[in-house]
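Appendix B. Chain record.
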Amino acid sequence: MNLQHKADKVYKLLLKEYPDAKTALNFKKPFQLLIATILSAQCTDVRVNKVTPALFKKYPSIAAFAGAKQPELEQEIRSTGFFRNKAKNVIACCKEIVENFQAEVPSTMEELKGLPGIGRKTANVVLGNAFAIPGIAVDTHVLRLTNRIGLSKNKNPVKIEFDIMKIIDKNKWTMMSHFLISHGRNICKARKPLCDKCIIEKLCSYKGKTG
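Structure tokens predicted for this chain:
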């Protein structure tokens, strides 16, 4: 079975299993998703979602975040971990958006990547979920599952992103990320994958299968 056919079968099975898959981060506006994604680094989405309601109430716009005092913002996001660096990046990122993009989150990969603290993963999350522009967001789940399933042999997130882009239709990129993340959280767990409950087990190349 070639990789394109395999990826298509995986996509269809996961679509059936997770028809309502979407980003777990709560947001109403693009800038809120951008901030939430920055905060989600090395942190659970559940934790971020507990922090952001009060945060977005206090800072209701990009300009408000740009004008935030770093020590104060650090304390408000402390529970997300790495709070000093995250606060620094959030403020610097929002300042640049205010200065260069009329306080509107840019909607291209290159523009987003040029912002402080923004890599391809964060850019793809924002593009796919805030602007409906297809992208493969490679987090730890996507990295793990693409390797286990056999869709990519790479360990580098950027290389995995481009591997998947080659074998699946562009209009499926964003949802493929959501499906793999959902399956990683529910079934294909890092330490003890539930292979006996896996809908794509027959397509999987994982040598440590259980069940």
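Further analysis of this model is presented in Appendix C.
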